[in-house]
UniProtKB/TrEMBL annotation:
GO terms for cellular component: cytoplasm. It comes from the Eukaryota. InterPro entries: Metallo-B-lactamas (IPR001279), RibonucZ/Hydroxyglut_hydro (IPR036866). Keywords: Hydrolase, Membrane, Transmembrane, Transmembrane helix. One of its GO terms (molecular function) is N-acylphosphatidylethanolamine-specific phospholipase D activity. Gene3D superfamilies: Ribonuclease Z/Hydroxyacylglutathione hydrolase-like (3.60.15.10). Residues 161-298, 337-418 form the Metallo-beta-lactamase domain. This is Metallo-hydrolase/oxidoreductase. Pfam families: Lactamase_B_2. The chain crosses the membrane at residues 28-48.
Length: 460
C-alpha cells in the first residue's frame, strides 16, 4: 500500500471525529474499508491480481516469510504501471518501443546469414555438477552459483537452494514440436535438484518453463515460488499454490530454523527489482504481466560457522535491520552475501543510425546499487542481441552487460543467456568473444566477469 492510498484511508477514518462523531470501532472499520476499496480499484485498474504482502504469513513450507518494509519508499514509484488494464511499461528514456515481432520473425525465417549452430565440440562446454563441493560448503558462509544453461541457475546459500528461471525443457516454446530447441543439454536431471525456492524473472518461454515447475512441485510440494506481478495465476492454474507475486521493490525475508535435516539456520532476503524488458506468453497478452530482475541476500553468523558441529545460529537481529549500503553489517559477527539476477534485460535502445554512445542508458541498475550497495555476485545476460536495432531495447550486448556490472559495482559477474538456444542473429559463440574483447579494452581482470561451463559452480 503506498502513501497515497494510506492518506485516503486515513482521511476516511478521520472524517468521523470531525463530522459524524463515529465510535472508535466505526472509524477503524471505515479506514479498513477505505484501504480495501482503493486497493481493489487499484488492482483492477492494472488488470492483474495484486497480492498484498500479508499473503506471506499464510504460505506453507519450512520458511517463515515476512514482508520487508525497508524498501517501502521505492515501492511508491508506480511509473511502470499502465492504468485501465494496460499492464506494465518500461518507464525510462533508455527504452523505446520497437515493433520487432514481424520484422524479426521474417528475418529469422527467411533472412540470409542465419547463425550456424557449431558442431558439438565447438559449442559451450558442459561439465557434471560438483555436488560434493556445493553440499560441503552449504553450511558455511559461502554462496554457490551453478549455471544450468541459458538463464537457469541454482543458487545455494546456507540453508536454502534457490532455483532461478529453470528453463530446462528441450524447447523454449508453447509447442513441444516447434520453436527454438536447445543445442546443449542441462548438466543434471531434474530429480537431482533439491529446491527450496524458485524465482522467475518473467513469463517468456525461455525463462518460465511451466512443465519443469510442475515436475518440481510433484517432487516437493512446499517449494516457494517468487514471480513478478500478474504471473501468479498462470502458476495457480497449473496447480502450483505456494506463490508470492511481487511488484518492483517488494521485498521478503525468509527464515528457516536449523533442523536435523539441515543443521544450519537460513536467513534470506529476496527483493523484486526492475529490469528493461517486456512480457508475453501468447499473441494477445503483451506486457500484461510484469518482468523483473531479483536481488537476493543471505546472512550468516561468522563465529558460529567456525564451530565443528555445524550448529550455527544465524543472526536473527540482523534481519530486522534496514538493508545496509555495504556487505558489512553493523553486527561484526555476521556476513551478508549479495547476489543479483539480471533475468532478461536491455540497457539502451539503439535504433538504425543511432550511436551506442549517444543514447540513454537504463538507470535501474544504478538505483539498485544505491539501495543495496555493492553486489558480491551477479548473473548477467550477454546474448540474443542481434540485430541490434530490433533487440537492443530488451536484450543486452556483452558491452551492455559490462556496463550493468559496473553500475551494480559487482565484485564478480557470471555470463548467461547465451549458447543454449538460438534466439537471434549473432553467431552462437560470439557473445563470450565480444565480452572478452570489451573487458580487455577496459582493462578488466578476467575473473571480474567470467564465462563458465554449463554445470560449473562459482563460489563467493
Ligand atoms: Zn524475455
Amino acid at each position: 500500500m503506498d502513501d497515497g492510498w494510506l492518506r485516503v484511508a486515513r482521511l476516511l477514518s478521520n472524517i468521523g471525529p470531525h463530522t459524524f462523531a463515529l465510535t472508535r470501532r466505526q472509524k477503524v472499520f471505515c479506514g479498513v474499508a477505505g484501504v480495501g476499496l482503493v486497493a481493489a480499484v487499484s488492482a483492477s485498474a492494472i488488470g492483474v491480481e495484486y497480492s498484498p504482502n500479508s499473503v506471506a504469513a499464510s504460505l506453507g513450507g519450512p520458511f517463515t516469510v515476512s514482508a520487508d518494509s525497508s524498501v517501502a519508499e521505492l515501492r511508491n514509484d508506480r511509473r511502470h504501471w499502465i492504468g485501465g488494464g494496460g499492464g506494465f511499461a518500461n518507464p525510462w528514456p533508455s527504452f523505446k518501443d520497437v515493433p520487432f515481432a514481424v520484422p524479426f520473425a521474417k528475418l529469422m525465417l527467411f533472412g540470409d546469414k542465419k547463425p550456424k549452430v557449431p558442431i558439438a565440440a565447438d559449442r559451450v562446454r558442459a561439465q557434471h555438477i560438483n555436488w560434493d563441493r556445493i553440499r560441503k560448503d552449504a553450511n558455511y558462509d559461502k554462496m554457490h552459483l551453478t549455471w544450468l544453461s541459458h538463464a537457469a541457475f541454482l543458487l545455494s546459500v546456507p540453508g536454502a537452494n534457490i532455483l532461478l528461471d529453470p528453463c530446462l525443457s528441450d524447447r523454449c516454446s508453447p509447442l513441444s514440436w516447434a520453436g527454438p530447441s536447445r543445442i546443449v543439454n542441462p548438466p543434471c536431471k531434474l530429480e537431482e535438484l533439491d529446491v527450496d525456492v524458485c524465482v522467475i524473472s518473467h513469463n517468456h518461454y525461455d525463462h518460465l518453463d511451466l512443465d519443469v515447475m510442475k515436475k518440481l512441485v510433484e517432487k516437493k510440494k512446499d517449494i516457494l515460488f517468487f514471480v513478478p506481478m500478474g504471473n501468479k495465476k498462470l502458476l495457480v492454474d497449473a496447480g502450483i499454490s505456494n506463490v508470492i507475486e511481487c511488484d518492483w521493490w517488494d521485498s521478503y525475508k525468509l527464515h528457516k530454523p536449523a533442523s536435523q535435516d539441515s543443521p544450519v539456520e537460513s536467513n534470506v532476503q529476496i527483493t523484486c527489482t526492475p529490469s528493461q524488458h517486456f512480457s508475453s506468453r501468447t499473441l494477445w497478452d503483451k506486457n500484461k504481466t510484469l518482468w523483473s530482475s531479483w536481488h537476493i541476500q543471505s546472512t550468516v553468523n561468522q563465529d558460529d560457522n567456525e564451530d565443528d558441529d555445524n550448529t550455527n545460529i544465524l543472526a536473527e537481529a540482523n534481519l530486522n535491520e534496514p538493508i545496509s549500503s555495504t556487505s558489512a553489517t553493523s553486527n561484526p559477527n555476521t556476513i551478508t552475501k549479495k547476489f543479483f539476477f539480471g533475468g532478461d534485460t536491455g540497457y539502451r535502445t539503439v535504433l538504425q543510425g543511432d550511436s551506442e554512445d549517444d543514447v540513454a542508458t537504463c538507470p535501474a541498475f544504478r538505483e539498485i546499487h544505491s539501495h543495496f550497495g555493492d553486489t558480491d555476485l551477479a548473473a548477467l545476460p550477454i546474448g540474443a542481441y542481434a540485430p541490434r536495432h530490433l533487440l537492443s531495447n530488451v536484450h543486452c550486448s556483452p558491452r551492455d552487460a559490462i556496463d550493468i556490472h559496473h553500475d551494480l559495482h559487482a565484485k564478480k559477474s557470471v555470463a548467461m543467456h547465451w549458447g543454449t538456444f538460438v534466439l537471434s542473429r549473432e553467431d552462437v559463440m560470439e557473445p563470450p568473444r565480444l565480452l572478452r574483447q570489451e573487458m580487455e579494452k577496459r582493462g578488466m581482470r578476467e575473473e571480474e566477469f567470467v564465462v563458465v561451463d554449463i554445470g560449473e559452480t562459482v563460489t563467493v
